[in-house]
Hints:
Blueprint: E1 13-15, H1 23-26, H2 29-32, E2 36-45, H3 50-70, E3 78-83, E4 86-95, E5 101-109, H4 122-131, E6 139-143, E7 146-155, H5 160-167, H6 171-174, E8 194-201, E9 204-205, E10 209-210, E11 213-214, E12 218-220, E13 229-231, H7 235-244, H8 251-266, E14 271-273, H9 278-285, E15 291-297, H10 307-318, E16 321-325, E17 330-339, H11 345-370, H12 375-379, H13 394-406, H14 416-428, H15 436-440, H16 447-455, H17 460-468, H18 483-502, H19 516-530, H20 536-550, H21 559-577, H22 581-584, H23 598-608, H24 612-627, H25 646-667, H26 671-679, H27 682-691, H28 699-717
Keywords: Aminoacyl-tRNA synthetase, ATP-binding, Cytoplasm, Ligase, Nucleotide-binding, Protein biosynthesis
Family: Belongs to the class-II aminoacyl-tRNA synthetase family.
GO cellular component, one term: cytosol
Amino acid sequence: xxxxxxxxxxSVWHILPACAVSRTVARTSTxxxxxxxxxxxxxxxxxxxxxxxxxxxxxxxxxxxxHLDESFIVHGDIRGFSTPRxxxxxxxxxxxxxxxxxxxxxxxxxxxxxxxxGSPTPALLGFCRGQGVDPADTYTVDVADxxxxxxxxxxxxxxxxxxxxxxxPRLPHEITFPKMMHWEESGFQFARPIRGLLALLxxxxxxxxxxxxxxxxxxxxxxxxxxxxxxxxxxxDYMRRLREAFVIVDPAERRRLIEKQADxxxxxxxxxxxxxxxxxxxxxxxxxxxxxxxxxxxxxIATELPESVVRSVLQQQMHSFLVYDQNGxxxxxxLSVRNGLTDFIDIVRRGNESVAKAxxxxxxxxxxxxxREPLEAYVGRLDTLIFMDKLGTxxxxxLRLERLAACTTVYASVTPEEEATLFAAxxxxxxxxxxxxxxxxxxxxxxxxxxxxxxxxxSPDIVSAIREQYVPRSPSEDIPATRVGRLLGIIxxxxxxxxxxxxxxxxxxxxxxxxxxxxxxxIVRTIVESRESVDLEILVKKAVEGYQATGSLPHPxxxxxxxxxxxxxxxxxxxxxxxxxxxxxxLEYLPLVELGSIPERMQALHEAAGGAVLVTLADSHRRxxxxxxxxxxxxxxxxxxxxxxxxxxxxxxxAEAAAPRxxxxxxVRKYPEAIRTCEELAVPVTVFFDRILVMATDERVRSARLLxxxxxxxxxxxxxxxxxxx
Length: 726
C-alpha cells in the first residue's frame, strides 16, 4: 500500500513507483539496521469518565499512525495505552530520518501551458515557480486522452523529530468525546482538563503546547497525597518509572491483575463472579491506575432483596461486583477494586460495607413504599414524565406502543394469545419509570416493573416481557429469551428511533446522546439472532402513523424512509463487525422482512459454494443485471409474450416451473433446496446467452427477451444476488 503524501503536497504530489517505500518493507529487519528509536506520546489529564477512555485511546493511535504515514516516517508497531488520567501511544522503531524521495506534480493542461508562438503561458510559469523547477525541465503526460504538464523533483530527507513536532499540537484537537469541556481562556475543548504533555523520540524531548500546557519530559505517578514529578529519560524508562510510581498503563494488564486477585480471594471460599460482569469489569479497568481488590460483607437485607436490585446498587453506585457460589446463588459478599495500594485496606473495606448497607436499606424502603400501590397505578402518572423534548410524554409513548402491539399480526406472525400478552405488556411497560426505585436506580427500568408485577401475582409471560424490553443494552448482553419480550423490545426501539429521527437529529462521529445506535443495533441483533420474521417496513410505517395520531411529529417528511435507511446502515454495520461483509453482500438488498433469515441463507450459500454450477449461475446473474440495468424485475410473464426460438421457450418453461417451487421452499425456510432449484436454471440460461441475441433489431423481439430476463432477475433475486458471490 503506497504511503499518503504529506498534507502540504496532498493534492498534487505522489511518489514515483520506483522510489516508493512500502510500509510493510519499512517494518522489516532491513530497516532496523539503521538508526531507529521508539516514539512515546502522553496526554496527562484530570480523571476521564471510564466510558470515554477506550475510544479516546483508539482515536489517538489512529491519528498518530496517520500522521507518521503521511509524513513518510518509517515505523514499526504502534500500541495504545491508557489509564483514567492518561492517554499514551508507543510507536516502535521509528526511523529518525526520512528517506529522500523523488516526486512528481501534475500541472496545467498542455493546451493552456503554451501560447501560439510556443512560449510558456502565465499558467505554466506559475506552476513552475510554485514547484521550484524550470519550464524546460517539465514534461507531458497523457491522462484520459488529454495532455498535462508534469514536473519532477527530489524532496530531501527530514528529521523525524521535526515532523513529529509539527503534528503533535493537532492530536488533542483530533480526539472527540461525547461530551467536551473547556477550562481556560483559549476555549480549547477536551473531555477533561489537560495537565501535562510528554513526547520522547528516543532520548530526545519533543516540544509542543496545548491550552497553555507546555510539554516536558516529566509525568506523575499514582495520585495519592502529593505525587512528585517523575523525570523520564526514554520510552523504556517511562514504563519502568511509572510502574515504580504505582501506575500500570496497560489496561489489559490491569484487567488481568483484577481477575487474578479476585480469583485468589474467591476461589478458596468456593465463590466466583457472575458470568454477566464483563461490562462492569471493562468500566472498573478504566477507573483505576493500580488495582487492589478486596472482599466485603453485605448485610442480611441483601439476601431478601431481588438479585437484580442488589447487583444494580453495587454496580451503579459503588462499581462493585456481586459474588456467587458455585451453583450460581448470591452470597452476602461483594468484591470491589481500590485505586491504589493495599495500605489501610481494612478501613477502605469497612467504608464500602457501610455504604453498601445504607444503599441496600434505601432500596428496601423504596420497594416497600412503591408496592403500596399496584403497578397499574403508576401508568396514570406517566403523563408527568417527558419522553423527549418535542415528542411528548411517556404516557403518549405508552399509547403508541399499545397501538403497535394491537396490530402485531400485520408485521409478525403471532398467535392471539401472544398478541394479547404483548398488548398487556406494552400497557405496563413504562409504568415503573414513575416509581421511586427507578428514579433512584435508572438501570433498573423494566426490571423493577417485572419484580413488582411478579410479587403481585401477575402473568409470568407479561413479567418476562417487561423485564426484557430494554435488552440487549450492550453488544455482550444476550437478546430477550421470550418471543413477546423480543417483540416488545423491537416495537419500543422502533418507536424511539422513529421519534428521535423525526426531530431532525442524526448521530454523527462518536456522539449519540439519545442512544440511536443502541436502539438500531438492538433491533438488528434481536431479529437476526432470534431468526424472527418481522416486517420492519410495515412496522416503521405503523410507528410513523402512531406519532401522527398523537400529534408529536416535528418533521414527518420522508420519515419512514429515513428510519429504514438508518436501520439498513445498522444491518450493514452488524455484519461488518461480525466480519461477514463478503458473506452479507449477496443478501444485502433482500427485503427487510427477510432480515431474520439471513444467517440461514448465509449458511446455505456457504454449503453450496465452490460448485461449478453456482459459478456459472453467478456469471449469468451478473450478465442479466447488466443487460436489464434500469428495468424493474418482472414477477410474471404474459401468456402471449413473443418468444419463438427453442432456447427462449425452454428458458421460459424452466423459469416458470422453478418460480413456484422456489417460493414454496423460501416460505418454509428451506434455503438449500431453493438454491438447488435456482441452479437448475444455469444450463438453459447459458444456452440462451450462447445462441440468442437479446438486443435484437426488432423492437418487439428485443422487448420480449428483456422481459424474460427481468423475470429471471426476479426469480434469482428471491434467493440472493448471485452476482455478488465470490
